[in-house]
Amino acid sequence: MDLRKLSSFLAVVEEAHFGRAASRLFLSPASVTLHVQQLERELGTKLLDRGQSPVAPTVAGQRLASHARTLLAAANAAMEDVSEAANAAMTTARTLRVGVMGHGSAEVTPAAVTAFRRARPDIPLELVQLTFTEHVSALRENRVDVAFVRPAIEADGIEIDILTTEQRIVAVPAGSSLADAAGVGVRVADIIDLPYLRLPRHTPRPFTAYLYFDTAENRAPDYALTPQDVLTSVAAGRGAGSGLKSFARYYPWPGTRYVPVLDAPCAHSVLATRAADTNPEVRIFRALTVALAREMRSAG
After folding, report:
1. I need a surface site. Which of 29, 155, 278, 282 has the fewest CB within 10 A?
2. What is the third-level CATH fold of 96-161+276-299?
3. pLDDT higher than threshold 60 for residue 90
4. Does domain 3-87 have CATH number 3.90.950.10?
């Protein structure tokens, strides 16, 4: 399948307009139209509904757009990789260090790791478990090359790609009066006074605000550095914790219940990288991860 045709098709889908797509690609509208028509003939199906404004993809077009993003991202990453290899002397393969806070970005994290290992089998990959205090410090101190963390952050020298956007949940003891609300949910006002587990003083402010729903002030006696710390204390009735909805899928912990917080703003999990990093493996990992996350969102 011709990547130029895919690029033209995807530009029309994203711009919802043939003219804007042509301007974006520095092509004539006639060339973009021809590319789309050729794709439709090759696939034997209509990909765009031209009868409405703005232009919209058909069901088949939506499917193709998802695949096109993945294919184009992989192709761009491959081009960068080959170019880097052509302009640099061969050196010993450098391990790509992937930091993961908790369960990372749910299903996106293992999918990205698997995709990278298949795409770059000669590059060693190391998974580094991060604690709640290592929001960006592991990147800044060059202990990892990429990091799956939450929530989204704004920090000098750090770039992020949002991978998931999820409902917030609170973890409470199974014997808590709130445990019965696991199937229906609660509001922030119902859980703001819970005794949330303490975090070390050097925990970054964005993570403490996230864990404590910005305003919660009551603190349990126990400290937590990892999800396992949180759940051990929660199950023992020594405090409460919070997280993303996917947390419940990855940590089915005896003695705990996960309760949706209905009116809390959704939170993001992200892939964080150093803005000035020129490592081609980082660029490849990032491109694959972003494409996979986009594809998973479309499929969901």
Report:
1. 278
2. D-Maltodextrin-Binding Protein; domain 2 (3.40.190)
3. no
4. no
